C-alpha cells in the first residue's frame, strides 16, 4: 500500500501536469499547483476533522494573496494592452472577438 501511495500520486501528478501544459498556459498550471497546500488543508479539515493552525491559515492566506495579486496584475495588463476593437478578455486569460 505504501508503494502504491508513493507511486500513484507521483506518476498521476506528473501525468496531469504534463497533459495540462499541453492545453493551458504554463502560468495557469503553476497557479493551480501553487494552491495544492490550500486544498490539502481543506480536505484534511473536511474529511479527517483536522484543525487548521493559525500559522497554516497565515500560509494559506499568503498563497491566496499571491495568486490574487498575480491575477489582478495580469488582467489589468491584458485589459490595457488589448486594442479597442470590441474584443473581450476572459478571466482565464483567453481572448476572443
In short:
The protein has about 100 residues and is mainly α. The protein contains four helices and two strands; from the N terminus they run H-H-H-H-E-E.
Keywords:
97 residues, 4 helices, 2 strands, mainly alpha, two-stranded antiparallel ribbon
Low-confidence stretches: 84-92
Strand order of the largest sheet: 1-2
Main sheet record: 2 strands, antiparallel
Estimated helix fraction? over 70%
Shape: flat
Mean pLDDT: 78
Structural class: mainly alpha
Please state the oligomeric state of the protein chains shown.
single chain
Question: Measured on Cα atoms, how large is the radius of gyration?
Answer: 18 Å
Kindly state the number of beta strands: 2
DSSP helical segment count: 4
The run of helices and strands is HHHHEE
Strand portion: under 5%
The first-to-last residue Cα distance is: 51 Å
3D architecture notes:
The chain is flat, with a radius of gyration of 18 Å. A hairpin with a 5-residue loop joins strand 1 and strand 2. The termini are far apart. It is mainly α and 97 residues long. It is built from 4 helices and 2 strands, in the order ααααββ. It is 74% helix and 4% strand. It has a two-stranded antiparallel ribbon.
Amino acid at each position: 500500500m505504501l508503494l502504491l501511495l508513493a507511486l500513484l500520486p507521483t506518476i498521476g501528478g506528473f501525468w496531469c501536469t504534463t497533459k495540462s501544459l499541453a492545453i493551458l498556459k504554463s502560468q495557469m498550471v503553476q497557479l493551480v499547483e501553487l494552491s495544492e497546500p490550500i486544498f490539502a488543508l481543506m480536505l484534511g479539515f473536511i474529511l479527517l476533522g483536522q484543525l487548521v493552525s493559525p500559522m497554516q491559515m497565515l500560509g494559506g492566506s499568503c498563497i491566496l494573496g499571491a495568486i490574487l495579486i498575480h491575477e489582478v496584475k495580469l488582467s489589468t495588463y491584458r485589459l490595457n494592452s488589448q486594442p479597442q476593437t470590441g474584443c473581450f478578455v476572459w478571466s482565464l486569460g483567453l481572448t476572443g472577438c
